[in-house]
Amino acid sequence: MKTVTNSANFAANVSLANKYIENGLLFSFTGSAANNNCGYAGANCYDDPSELSSSFEGNYMATAGEGAYLSVKKANGADMQGIEFAAGTSYASLNGFWRTFNNNVQTGMGNFSGGDGTVLGLFDLSGFDEVRYFSYSRANRQSGFSAPAFDQVTVGVPEPTSLALLGLALMGLMGVKRRK
Fold first, then answer.
1. Which of 30, 107, 139, 164 has the most C-beta neighbours closer than 10 Å?
2. pTM
3. What DSSP designation does 171 have?
4. Backbone Cα Rg of the chain
């Protein structure tokens, strides 16, 4: 579980906006061929808009191109410990790849596959300051052309776990025992 500190649904992103900021989150994209006219909310960025996930109705952010990705950072440069977003693609099946960074050093990466609108959740107690999301036609990044889209991005911090609360309780009991 987590407490949401920032969120974005791209409702106000209505023109081509690289380095778009919403609710303290900074979004950017890379891509070739003028990003295939993607990268802003609600844009028809594919030849056939029906190719896009049905989960992406209204506003979202998308891009396309050789090695294209979407990036999320906090606008103030602070670290994140957790992030969730609805992952999309223009391909028939979702085959995503993610990378996390802290101070320009990669801290994690992984592949995933799922259905339309799969929610990807990443968590790292040590923190990260950027997430990059790619989407490929086949699993395990077997293509150079990427066509990612995402929506409903939330960033949060972890809530205390039961184990942490137990630890605090034990420390309190030790303090009571010392006073006696």
1. 30
2. 0.79
3. H
4. 19
